[in-house]
Each structure stands twice: as structure tokens, then as C-alpha cells.
Amino acid sequence: MIINVAKKFILAASALILGGCVSYSVTEQEMTNYLQDSVMLEQEVGVQNVMYAQVAVDDLAVQIGRADAERVSVLANTNAKVQESLIKSSEPNLVIRDNKLVIELFD
């Protein structure tokens, strides 16, 4: 009986001690600095001299809990250079579909 109580006490004390060790915090500035230093987002899509685009993302900024308490927002500026040589009849759109950058020529 005493052994069972001792086991439960040790288990409860271990859970309290280990539970306190998991806490951490990250600031918006730390996340922004990490993304700007570690992540380089540049992509090229299409075929040169037919339909081609170069896209770059810069000036990343992180906002934690501003739009919603459970949301982390990543804001960025996107620059795109679109080269259209053979197809002049439509306006190309750069869209993200299934996590891929795609050039849309028609609706």
C-alpha cells in the first residue's frame, strides 16, 4: 500500500517537473530575423522566350496573435518579372495552386 502511494507521488512529481521544462517563448522579431537570415524565396517558372517569370519574396515580417490569438501571420513583398514573347493576346497571371507557382494564361 505504501509502495503504491510512493509510486503515485513520484509519478506526479515527475510530471510536474517535466511539464515545467517544456515552456518556451519566441518573439515576432526573433522569427522575422530567422526568416530573413535563413529563408531565400526565389522561383522561376515557364520556358524562356515563350512565357517565363522570375518571382522573389523579400522583406518578410512575422505577426503573432494580431489577427487572431491562435494565428501567426507572415507578411512579405513579392516581386515578379514576367517575360511574354510569343503570347501577346492574353494577360498572364501568376497564381499559387497546390503550393506551386503557376502562370495562368486564360481564366
List keywords for this structure.
about 110 residues; alpha+beta; three-stranded antiparallel sheet; two-stranded antiparallel sheet; 2 helices; about 40% strand; elongated
Summarize the structure.
28% of the residues lie in helices and 41% in strands. It has 107 residues and is an alpha+beta fold.
Describe this structure in words.
The protein has about 110 residues and is an alpha+beta fold. It has one domain (about 1-105). About 30% of the residues lie in helices and about 40% in strands. The protein has 2 helices and 5 strands, in the order ααβββββ. The chain has helices at about 1-20, 30-40; strands at about 40-45, 50-65, 70-85, 95, 100-105. It has a 3-stranded antiparallel β-sheet, with helices on one face. A two-stranded antiparallel sheet has the order 4-5. Strand 1 (about 40-45) and strand 2 form a beta hairpin. It is elongated, with a radius of gyration of 25 Å. The model has no long low-confidence stretch (mean pLDDT about 75).
